[in-house]
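A protein record pairs a chain with a discrete description of its three-dimensional fold. The shape at a given residue is found from the number at the same position. Here is what such a record looks like in full:
>
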Amino acid sequence: MKSFPKPLGTKEEADYLIRCKAGDKEARDKLIEHNLRLVAHIVKKYNMTDKETDDLISIGTIGLIKAIDTFDDEKGIRLATYASRCIDNELLMMLRSNKRLNKEVYLYDPIGSDREGNEINLLDIIEETDTDIVENIVLEEDIKKLYSVIGKVLTDREREIISLRYGLVNRKEVTQREIANKLGISRSYVSRIEKKALKKLRECFDL
């Protein structure tokens, strides 16, 4: 697969988005160029031949361009997250269109295989989450921010409950009842603390 430029930094991307919205063609081209790696990343899951992959990248790039042209940063989501949906939609429309030339489309029709050789179908692709799609590009940044925010905005009790509840300590998620037994408090109290802590985290991440 071809090598593409690295994604832009958060501030740099924001600057280009402002310029692009103002009609700056060069800024638009930069946004397209530096998000081609995202297109290639999404195309990988289809596990096609080199020629088919190149075709899919071309189709996916159309979705990327649509995303850049319609992106609204005031909605509080990242360009990469929004673009991944547009790219996937463009690819799925193309696959469905090609299928209809031969026969009716079924969600369980095989369309390729993953890197482990397992057969995948349209339903697998549709059900894949946006986080899975862009995780290799933006997840590391989010994880660093998450741990930083947890340490700054949560109380010791909130931090302990969130860490246990979502497996941040040993990667094993614990139920509210198990936490309640461990800490000697009621399950409803654990639930209230968890909700309060999650509200704080959502506000920090603008979710």
About this structure: Residues 10-131 form a domain with the Four Helix Bundle (Hemerythrin (Met), subunit A) fold (CATH 1.20.120.1810). Residues 100-107, 129-139 have pLDDT under 50 and may be disordered.
